[in-house]
Amino acid sequence: MELLRPLVLAAALIFSTVFVNRAAAVEVIPPKPPAYFNDYANVVPKEKALALNEKLAQFERETSNQVVVAVFRKMETDSDIADYTRRIAQSWKVGQAEKRNGAVLFVFVDDRKMFIQVGYGLEGALPDVTAFDITERRIKPRFRTGDYAGGLEEGVDLICKAIRGEYKGTGETVEEKRAPASSGWGPLGLLVMLIIVLTIIRLGRRRGGYGYTGLGGPFVSTGWGSGWSSSSSSSSSGGGFSGFSGGGGSFGGGGAGSSW
Amino acid sequence: MKKFLGLGKLLVLASLFSLTGCGTYNRLVTLEQTVNKKWADVQSVYQRRADLIPNLVSTVAGAANFEKSTLTEVTNARASVGQVKLDPSKAPTDAAELEKFQKAQGQLSTALSRLLVVSENYPQLKATQAFQNLQAQLEGTENRISVERNNFNTAVQEYNTALERFPTNMLNKMFGFKPRPFFAATTGAEKAPTVNFPTFGSTPAASPAATP
To answer: Which of A86, A129, A252 sits opposite B137 (nearest CB)?
Structure first.
């Protein structure tokens, strides 16, 4: 038995390195974002990010279109950007289920690549040519000078402008619609939420990496506060933070991108 | 009394079977409809690509002495795609039919990507907005094609699996459900063809061989 121990250890070591190597090559589909505007790469000032986030939340209230921005450091995949980002957008379910009216602007700072994914229901209002025009001729020149905030703001404005007339909103976001129903859970629901919040805080402290750095602290405190506990009026009155929930939209390869 | 019980059991069993039979029948109908719906989606994205081509050809042909053979190839491939027309509302049941369709579309894909590769040698053409826009549209269409093909294959797989399962496999003959063929996974092969330029010398930008 004593003799076996080093063997077992060695085997375990080999196994674990093989496992880790495998894991490194595996594609990562980022988890659903907590906000409309998600700056995981920390290239946009916080106030700007919050302002753009509120703008996009308000846009959903008015038009029901869900527009999400996600800025990452780099792609974690072997696929090309169109295929990779389509699958991400699909897994986030951006857009309403019936209208399929979602659009996601993906930016990978270190790869110097971006792509606008357009949901099925917006392909008419935001055709590939327009998406390409926005990334190639509007955002790209700004990114080249390092003006990420300006490029993203212009990109958001142009996307919203293109798709504004397409659908009518209900005055509420998907997240806000869900909120009243879940507060009806009573004490049990609150307890579950408390546990989730605590876990998120703990996780955030432990790694602070991938997840919630973009809007870090404010997300946990104000986000849950306005989104869940109080009435929806407080969250739409500005100043607060509006969380994002996908409505079940789907993506079929529409959109275009550029590298800079 | 015992006999009645037995009869009752039999009745229950029979009705259960007919119920599940009914359920599976309905399920197969739904699955088959999904397959047809996805097939229609596939057809429409292929059609979308075909519709782009006249515009692309005229834009490219406008460029100073663009290689004619590449253009002819695209035009011919598009014409042969037009000849392999399948019913857009019903997914094909014949594997050979689908293969023929796929082959024609594959030739068009190859011709198109060759055209894009060749256009690299025409910086003036590449710099025009019209060409850049067309390229973005073409790429978007190729992306859509691969998505809808995948969706179609997933739907077919689900349907075929349901057909083969017991007890459905006994019912499907009765109701005339047939398994459907897939798209073969050649998307990667279609996208990256090896390009040889027999008419191209080592001085690509000059392109002196472009006489008709």
So the answer is: A129
Which residues are within 8 A (CB) of B68 and not within 5 positions of it... i.e. 6 or more apart? B210, B212
The reported pTM is 0.74
Find the CB nearest B140 among A83, A136, A253: A253
| Cβ contact B147–A253 (<8 Å) | yes
Closest chain B CA to residue A128: B137
Over its length of 212 residues, how does chain B's per-residue pLDDT go in tens digits?
Answer: 555 556 666 666 566 556 666 777 888 889 999 999 999 999 999 999 999 999 888 888 887 678 888 889 999 999 999 888 888 888 998 899 999 999 999 999 999 989 989 998 898 898 899 999 999 999 999 999 999 999 999 999 999 998 888 777 777 777 778 889 989 865 444 444 444 433 333 333 333 343 33
A71 in Cβ contact with A155 (< 8 Å): no
- Is A132 an 8 Å CB contact of chain B? yes
* Beta carbons within 8 Å of B180's beta carbon, 6+ residues apart: B35, B91, B92, B93, B156, B159, B160
B55 lies within 8 A of chain A by CB: no
Query: Are residues A86 and B146, on separate chains, in Cβ contact within 8 Å?
Result: no
Q: Answer yes or no: is the ipTM higher than 0.85.
A: no
